[in-house]
Specification:
Helices cover about 70% and strands about 5% of the residues. The strands form two sheets. It has a two-stranded antiparallel ribbon. The chain has a two-stranded antiparallel ribbon with strand order 3-4. It is built from 13 helices and four strands. It is globular. By secondary structure, it is mainly alpha-helical. It folds into two domains: about 50 residues, no CATH class; about 220 residues, Orthogonal Bundle (MetI-like fold). Helix 4 packs parallel to helix 8. Strand 3 and strand 4 form a beta hairpin.
Length: about 325
């Protein structure tokens, strides 16, 4: 055996076989660890990192949406009530031409916009109070109160709102001495319920954005003679617009896809989700066509937000 050569020099071992002849044998190189293998192959490393999320995004999400879109062009056999693969635009035409379908789509859009506006109207002054005025213990208590609805189940929150606005519920009991009665189950209670459900998704981004504003901006506004509301409209709102857009994406999209709120507290109110749920077994192509409507509304909303330049600042 000779001395061990430095570096990557190949080590040759001399082994004597039974016949007395010496043989040069090159031992196998030690196995390289996986990290070394991936370090030298960046493409393989990137594929390994993206394999699982891309499988979910493409294999489950995008393919499911594609199948949904394809199903929207199929039709129902009027004699057998079976779904027949084919191509027809009648399902989409019905959404626009059938008065009940069109009114439901517009009603759902109006409810989603109303929920977003109400969330903004409550979130901005509350965020200013929490970030700039309230004491730390008050701020912490309000933060717990805002996130408290997220701790309960969805149906539990719906049941709470139903018990509040029923004829013998808490609202009528509190307002009875003043001769005021509740609105009853309908669109107003549906909007209030959806606001109660999705308000944390608006309040938290707005509060975080307002907390990052320096106090000097408010002092400068006061020195220039601006009062409270002018300061809010002219200074605070433009600066926190990206946070409002971020929160409104959640409140708007989640309200568009909801239908259980309308079912439990909406009375006879119908939303897009109500039609989808009622047709998912009876007429899947119609349900698939209506499923495209909320997606189209959200895409249009994002395009409008992009035109304002808010998405670039998020």
């Amino acid at each position: 055996m000779g001395e061990t050569p430095p570096g990557n020099t190949i080590i040759r071992k001399r082994i004597v076989n039974p016949g007395g002849e010496k043989l040069n044998v090159i031992p196998k190189a030690p196995a390289r660890p996986l990290s070394t293998y991936l370090h030298k192959r960046p493409t393989t490393r990137l594929v390994a990192l993206l394999a699982l999320p891309m499988t979910w995004l493409v294999g489950v999400y995008i393919i499911s949406l594609t199948l949904l879109l394809v199903t929207a062009f199929w039709f129902i056999d009027p004699f057998t009530s079976k779904v027949i693969p084919g191509f027809t635009l009648q399902n989409f035409v019905n959404i626009v031409t059938v008065p009940a379908y069109l009114s439901t789509s517009l009603r759902t859009l109006g409810i989603a916009l109303a929920v977003t506006v109400v969330c903004i109207a409550f979130a901005v002054p509350l965020g200013i109070f929490m970030a700039k005025i309230a004491r730390p213990w008050v701020r912490n208590a309000l933060a717990v109160a805002i996130t408290l609805p997220l701790w309960a189940g969805y149906l539990v929150k719906l049941l709470a709102m139903r018990l509040t606005f029923t004829e013998e519920g808490l609202f009528n009991w509190l307002m009875a001495p003043f001769g005021i009665s509740g609105p009853g189950f309908g669109i107003p209670v549906t909007i209030l319920t959806l606001t109660y459900l999705w308000f944390p998704y608006m309040a938290l981004p707005v509060f975080t954005a307002i907390r990052q504003l320096p106090h000097s901006l408010f002092d400068a506004s006061a020195d220039l003679g601006a009062r409270g509301w002018p300061t809010v409209f002219r200074m605070v709102l433009p600066l926190i617009t990206p946070a409002i857009i971020a929160g409104s994406v959640f409140t708007f999209s989640l309200s568009l896809g909801d239908y259980l709120a309308a079912r439990f507290v909406g009375g006879s109110t119908q939303m897009i989700g109500s039609i989808i749920a009622s047709n998912i077994n009876l007429n899947p192509p119609v349900a698939a066509a209506f499923s495209i409507v909320p997606i189209a509304f959200v895409v249009m909303y994002l395009m409008i937000a992009r035109r304002t330049g808010s998405l670039e600042r998020m």
